[in-house]
Amino acid sequence: MITTATQPLLRFEGLGKVYPTPTGPYPVLDNINLQVEQGEFICVIGHSGCGKSTLLNMVSGFSTPTAGQVLLNGRPIEKPGPDRMVVFQGYALLPWMTAYENVYLAIDEVKPDLSSREKREIAVDHLAMVGLEKAMDKRIPQLSGGMKQRVAIARALAIRPEVLILDEPFGALDAITKEELQEELLQIWNTQKCTVLMITHDIDEALFLADRLVMMTNGPAASIGEVMPIDFPRPRNREDIMEDPKYYELRNTALDFLYNRFAHDDVE
Amino acid sequence: MTTTSPNPTSNAAGPLLWWKRNRKLILPPLFGIAGFLLAWQLSASLGLTRLPGPLSLFTEQRTRELLLYPFYDRGGLDKGLFWQTMASLGRVAQGYFLAAVVGISAGIAVGLNKTLNRAFDPLFQFLRMVAPLAWVPIALVIFQKNQPAAIFVIFITAVWPILINTAEGVRQIPQDYHNVALVLQMSKKTFFTKVLIPSALPYIFTGLRISIGLAWLAIIAAEIVMSGIVGIGFFIWDAYQQNYVSDIVLAVIWIGGIGLLLDRLMAWIQSRISPGQ
After folding, report:
1. pTM of the complete model
2. Which A residues 188-247 touch B at CB under 8 Å?
3. What angle do CA A249, A212, A72 make, to 5 degrees?
């Protein structure tokens, strides 16, 4: 059964997670099956509490499955590592350092064998990709939310991960900054072709960015309800895809899934 | 003519303007202190208390000499207040340095390790409640000599706030920073120097600042009980034995002043070193 040529980069096999609670075991995720090819951009959507973050935590290695497994290049994921870099929800930048120092530190830790000159170049290049050439010597507290998120993305991509994991990266940003960052993220992804797993609450964001949209059913024991391919040609242009009649077809499918078929039950 | 006039006038009004802006900050403390000294002097002059008033610092010849000549040194214990203070500060420096080293290292260990914390926290909470004076006889029994006993008393008084604050600072490191370290598979050394220390630094400095005041309080307590050493604490005890009450008043003013200086110094270092968060 060795078929390395066609082996997907990531494979979720019967993945499940049960949390022990004082009132008995609570199943968060149940029987998740998915294959992700190298270079794919996957968005995950679902109502809050459906276990999206738990799902990605089992890819990043912060959480271990209680059933099944996630395979990266055929090997089960056991612990966090720089091949699966995370852009954390709260940015997780070190505030006593400058933007540049934050990025440099990551490169220095992950690729200690590079010369300091190479490391410096990588750091500056990636900060430039997110438009921070001028602000890179500022300390983190002096940066706006959008700029902090840019630094976090630059740091994540500078270490060249195989999988980039983003947990609602643009949720806290204003609409304009959000669109700018989405475009920058797509541009960098186009040049690096790393695999992206991204949690979002925003259907339009997913339609603009993703190759496939993974829609989760509600918890407990949430699972993948439907995987919707989004095959707009790349490079994408926001105006163009929004004029495409297919955009509304896909949008309605997603809305229908979230608000009719798996409407959030507010009464607990 | 009209165009050049604003400059000289604003210059002339400079000090006056400054005074107008700042007098609300300067006058109340001046009035407060003057009022306190006046009440004290009156109560002494009217014979309400046996404590000599502030004027006795000048009227008593021996006290006046101590006040005006802090640098004299006639050998033995007969030294000016500057040398007495320096001797005490030297002991504080040694005990405090020891407390900082032990407090910060133990604090980091306890902050990182939950089991260690559970094992020792009750003990720390108990020991930190023991007053400096109570440690003096214990220290004398352990060390048998005045000098190391005094340093031990400083150490044991100053170490707890440093230890407890450092441990808290380490516990308060956001989970996000731990996660970053995990994803990057950061080495222990890098985590320590680039994440742990800078993150806990504000807490460590809070502990250091509380402790410098305590260390200074403790040295007085320690020296008062230990006889025959040069130091401001023993100076007070000696003056009391010989009924030189105005000398005590003068020494107390020195002690307060030095304590204030130490606290300001730590606050200044804190503001320089603490990272902008």
Report:
1. 0.81
2. none
3. 170
